[in-house]
Write a structure and sequence with these properties.
about 280 residues; about 10% helix; globular; about 45% strand; mainly beta; eight-stranded mixed sheet
Length: about 280
């Protein structure tokens, strides 16, 4: 359903909302509810040889502009397995006034699994993005979450030229917080030091975090990620086991292909460790 949205004519940007509900019916997971307003939209579920219901979220307007306020709510009911992705990287365009605000809420029920694996986000020069991803997990739920960025349009010399990039990821269960991860970056504009020192991104303009939660061998998975990173020619990978279970992986890459290869490698290891499933090749043009 695509209900009409009420817009304030005095404000630049649009209000987009997407609500998805996944349920298990028999041996399959189905989309039991879907409601959206542009500039958010979803494609029909993709039929692949996998137990997950695979849905692609897209923005038919071509990217995010200043003043856009987007809200994505996903609920996976008991036993359901949902995989959310995007057809391509998300572009965030230059703004002269308000930032783009995107809020993602994931609710994962008992024995349910959500895989959140969008392509990376590209903040153009002068853009401003404020994003939050909040996850509520049942005690027996599983989660694979990918959160990846470029520092800008690197080939055009726009690395770190965005006005602002704010991002927060929070994961909790019934007993409290599992992960709270946040960064706030201000672009260097046309002058100033590059983000190349220790503690920034060590001259790597592509970066990602991958969080994995559920019933799996965290130490073994972290060791597998470290081995993957040791054998990778370009990207750098590091993995840490979190205090209450789960693993957080950091990735730095010098170029988009290296980022994609490293993230897909971590995703492959996560699916095997958490779900006992083989890699999944998403059909993207």
């Amino acid at each position: 359903m695509t209900p009409a949205a009420t817009l304030d004519a005095a404000r630049v940007g649009r209000d987009g909302a997407l609500t998805l509900r996944f349920e298990q019916r028999g041996a399959a997971t189905v989309v039991a509810g879907c409601r959206y307003t542009l500039p958010l939209q979803v494609l029909a579920p993709v039929a692949l040889d996998d137990p997950a219901a695979i849905v692609s979220i897209l923005n038919p307007t071509g990217g995010l502009v200043g003043g856009d306020r987007l809200s994505i709510d996903v609920h996976a009911a008991a036993g359901a397995h949902a995989l959310l992705t995007t057809p391509s990287a998300t572009r965030v365009y230059r703004t002269e006034r308000e930032p783009t605000v995107q809020t993602v809420r994931l609710s994962v029920g008992p024995q349910a699994v959500v895989e959140w694996v969008p392509d990376h986000t590209i903040p153009f020069a002068g853009s401003a993005l404020r994003q939050s991803i909040d996850v509520d997990l049942a005690e027996t739920a599983g989660l694979i979450l990918v959160d990846a960025f470029s520092a800008g349009r690197i080939a055009l010399g726009e690395a770190w030229r965005f006005a602002a990039l704010e991002n927060a990821v929070s994961v909790r269960d019934g007993r409290g917080w599992l992960l709270q991860d946040r960064f706030v970056l201000r672009g260097i504009g046309t002058r100033g030091p590059a983000f190349d020192g220790l503690g920034f991104t060590e001259s790597h303009p592509y970066f990602a975090s991958i969080a994995v939660f559920g019933a799996f061998d965290c130490d073994r998975f972290a060791a597998d990620v470290e081995r993957l990173g040791a054998g990778h020619a370009a990207a750098r990978l590091g993995a840490g086991v979190l205090p209450r279970g789960g693993v957080l992986v950091r990735c730095l890459a010098p170029a988009a292909p290296a980022l994609v290869d490293a993230v897909e490698g971590c995703w492959r290891l996560a699916r095997r460790a958490l779900l006992g499933l083989p890699p999944l090749a998403l059909r993207k043009s």
